[in-house]
TrEMBL record:
A GO-annotated cellular component: cytoplasm
Lineage: Bacteria, Bacillati, Actinomycetota, Actinomycetes, Pseudonocardiales
InterPro entries xrefs: AB_hydrolase_fold, ACP-like_sf, AMP-dep_synth/lig_dom, ANL_N_sf, PP-bd_ACP
Stored Pfam families: AMP-binding, PP-binding
One GO MF term: phosphopantetheine binding
Occurrences of domain Carrier (ranges): 660-735
Protein name per UniProt: Carrier domain-containing protein
Span list, region Disordered: 1-25
Superkingdom classification of source: Bacteria
GO biological process terms on file: amino acid activation for nonribosomal peptide biosynthetic process; secondary metabolite biosynthetic process
Length: 774
């Protein structure tokens, strides 16, 4: 099989139309000497050396260890795939490529170079104007000057990226002066480009750390204006004075139970009026609060309690016997209870900046909970920035939508309360988008934070009622360009901001204001003043703008790490980074710098693979498939046997993805789950929420079930057991029917011919498309 040449990820900052981009750069004397030293100044050998340098450079640019390229020699292009690794030296790379080219040149199959990465030299008759998505050409000698030329289609790259690419090829060629030194030790770009990237990453950084806590600003508001309204939940509300007093009561009860500074307290209060006093009360006791997701499985919550060593939980509900059995001796305090005996006094000392504020639990590599420890100092820095960035003051009313178990809730609550604003709590679970929009109108909400998928559900309902809305912040997922366009069309006067950041960096890392010029990619903005961002190679070397690499963080916002998991902490938090900080966090995300200093998101490291020189991003492939007319959802899975099982894939698509006997209700419910989850595979016993679903998506599932199956499912029953099997049984119970096992029925709009998809896959071999994706 002929290797497919690498197709670059588009590098442009705005929508580009018009003439192809082109860049020319002179080849410096050092690079010319290195080129001549290895090639002996022979044209064909020179072409191999140039191709080796381009392959390494493109591997860096695409964050891939396999590059496919077409080398244009005297008899035409020869396509090869080149393996790269950190130990590769220039000598090894040239020998490897030379052997691959000689083997490939002996074949007689025609080479399709449409959309390919082509490398050529005018000394062997190459024409720089020939077709190709990206082309790098070394000009013939002209006196003391030789030029490198790069050309690309207009929708692939702007000239700035081609200039960066050529300067990087030059830097790599210069490293060939030391042919036995690993290329991973060489600079990945020209000095001026690497300096620009470093400047982008720390352009707004301030060395002044925040020396305050989450509670201190709220205490000041409570003292200055105790009658100001602070929290609203349903028909109940709290003033700042009442909020601070209630928090003091919680702190006193915790102290009476023996909770000491640094202790861990679980908080499971939902969206009740007691939710915020419970959180503040834990902090006032100088303890750390651990938010518990009341919609998570019991096993997950029990694992969190055990891992954090929690003996006390603040909850306004019965956690159930299962929880008590999992954590013997667990004390549950209902913050709503009246206390007849006067509790112990509020602890005399308020928290300090070095106290742990909260421990947020996420899933680890084995889907077991892992905690992220964040201190007051780190997150208070984020709060200070957000107040200034959002222009928050006492007139702000925020609708708090994210779960308390999500760090976006911290980014909502504390900046608004610290500024003297008002927080409206609304439980998204069981609340339809139109009802949330009604809350926005009723309380004159001016801002809220949501995920893009949630915002997609809410947007149309907000249009007629959102006169008070001034700011929408989206976080947690890439923001699709079509949703940005919809926002501008539906709410043209409302500011749209995207925030990016992992829990390991105290909520936020970068921010991007979508009121600026739009982007066809996934911009996540420029770094916050408390964070330095680097985009680096696998070995931690800085990359120039436009090159995709690992996103690493350092600065005041870093969390302490994962308690009880030294191995994970050591892997995610490097202790000797080449930056002026003692630690650096590897996010596991990929990104690249635009020339204006904006960071573009490029997916997760584990979502990127290379197949015969073709870089494959499963999310991008799924996005393209989802645009095909008639496709409602799409997902991409990689087959490790190395073959495309077209017949099995067609059968799976025809039968709903589960080739076992199932009744039609389960098939329909499976399809609804898949659509809500963006097309990802769903098995009959998979839990909707563990697959990435959330409350508003859950409501869309219930609405879809009502539309397609004609029955209404209880919201509480769904959130209690959100599997395909359980929901299907609820549908049958509502219908008063029993299970009738049949072969799966195809979706209504699916082809009735199971061979049709197989034939389509056989025909779907477009240039640059991966041919081992199933």
């Amino acid at each position: 099989m002929t290797p497919k040449p690498t197709a670059l990820r588009p590098r442009f900052t705005t929508s580009v139309t018009g003439d192809p981009a082109r860049a020319t750069a002179p080849l410096p004397q050092r690079a010319r000497r290195a080129l001549a030293a290895i090639s002996g100044d022979r044209p064909l050998e020179e072409l191999v050396v140039l191709a080796a340098a381009v392959a390494w450079t493109v591997g860096l640019a695409e964050h891939t260890n396999e590059v496919g390229l077409a080398v244009v020699g005297p008899t035409g292009p020869v396509t090869v795939a080149v393996e790269l690794d950190d130990a590769t030296t220039p000598a090894q790379l040239v020998v490897r490529l030379d052997g691959a080219l000689r083997a490939a040149a002996g074949g007689t199959a025609p080479v399709d170079v449409a959309g390919a990465l082509l490398v050529g030299s005018q000394r062997v008759g190459d024409d720089a104007g020939a077709a190709g998505a990206l082309r790098v050409t070394l000009g013939a000698p002209s006196g003391e000057r030789r030029d490198l030329v790069a050309a690309a289609a207009a929708d692939l790259a702007e000239p700035w990226f081609l200039h960066v690419l050529l300067r990087s090829v030059t830097a790599v060629l210069t490293a060939f002066e030391e042919p036995r030194r690993p290329l991973a030790e060489a600079a990945a770009g020209a000095p001026e480009d690497l300096a620009a990237a470093r400047a982008h990453g720390r352009g707004r950084y301030t060395s002044e750390a925040c020396d305050t806590t989450l509670t201190a600003p709220i205490a000041m508001v409570a003292a200055a204006d105790p009658e100001r309204q602070a929290v609203v939940a349903g028909h109940r509300s709290l003033t700042y004075g009442q909020l601070w007093e209630a928090a003091g009561g919680v702190a006193a009860r915790l102290a009476a139970l023996g909770v000491e500074p640094g202790g861990m307290v679980g908080v499971d209060t939902g969206e009740s009026i007691h939710a915020v006093p419970a959180i503040l009360g834990v902090l006032r006791a100088r303890a750390a609060y651990v938010p518990l997701d009341r919609h998570a499985p019991v096993e997950w919550t029990a694992a969190v309690l055990a891992d954090a060593g929690i003996d006390v939980v603040l909850s306004d509900r019965d956690l159930g016997v299962g929880m008590a059995a999992a954590r013997p001796g667990l004390v549950i305090i209902n913050p709503a209870d009246d206390v007849s005996d006067p509790p112990a006094p509020v602890p005399a000392s308020e928290p300090n900046a070095d106290d742990i504020a909260y421990v947020l639990y996420t899933s680890g590599p084995t889907d077991t909970p892992k905690g992220v420890v964040v201190r007051h100092r780190a997150v208070a820095d984020h709060v200070r920035w957000k107040i200034a960035h959002n222009g928050s003051d006492g007139e702000v009313t925020l609708l708090q939508i994210p779960s308390r178990a999500c760090d976006s809730s911290m980014s909502d609550l504390f900046p608004v309360l610290s500024a003297g604003g008002r927080v409206v709590l609304a439980d998204p679970v069981g609340t339809k988008p139109a009802e949330l929009a009604d809350v926005v109108a009723r309380h004159r909400v001016s801002q809220f934070t949501v995920t893009p998928s949630t915002y997609r559900l809410l947007l149309d309902d907000l249009a007629p009622v959102a006169n008070s809305l001034r700011l929408v912040t989206v976080a947690g997922e890439p923001m699709p360009a079509d949703l940005v366009a919809r926002h501008r069309a539906v709410l043209p006067g409302v500011r749209l901001v995207i925030e990016y950041g992992p829990a390991e960096n105290s909520v936020g890392v970068t921010v991007f204001d979508h009121d600026a010029e739009g982007s066809p990619r996934f911009p996540i903005g420029s770094p916050l003043p408390n964070t330095v961002v680097r985009v680096v190679t696998a070995t931690g070397r800085d990359l120039p703008p436009g090159f995709v690499g690992a996103i690493r963080l350092s600065g005041h916002g870093l969390a302490d790490g994962y308690p009880g998991r030294p191995g994970l902490t050591a892997a995610a938090f490097a202790t000797e980074p080449p930056v002026p900080f003692d630690r650096e966090h590897d996010t596991g995300d990929l990104g690249w710098w635009r020339p204006d200093g904006v960071l573009e998101f490029a997916g997760r490291v584990e979502d990127r693979i290379t197949i015969q020189g073709q870089r494959v991003d499963s999310d991008e492939v799924a996005d393209v498939l989802g645009r095909i007319p008639g496709v409602r959802a799409a997902d991409v899975e990689i087959d490790d046997s190395g073959e495309v099982h077209r017949r099995a894939l067609a059968s799976a698509a025809y039968e709903g993805g589960d080739p076992v006997d199932r009744d039609a209700v389960e098939v329909a419910v499976t399809e609804v789950f898949r659509e809500a989850l963006g097309g990802r595979p769903v098995a009959v016993d998979d839990d909707f929420f563990l697959l990435g679903g959330h409350s508003l998506l859950g409501l869309s599932v219930l609405e879809a079930i009502e539309d397609r199956l004609g029955v209404m499912i209880s919201v509480n029953d769904f959130f209690a057991t959100a599997t395909v099997r359980a929901v299907a049984e609820q549908v049958r119970a509502a219908r008063g029917t029993s299970v009738a096992v049949t072969r799966d029925e195809p979706p209504v709009q699916a082809s009735q011919d199971p061979d049709a998809l197989a034939r389509l896959l056989d025909e779907f071999q477009s240039p640059g498309a991966p041919d081992q994706v199933s």
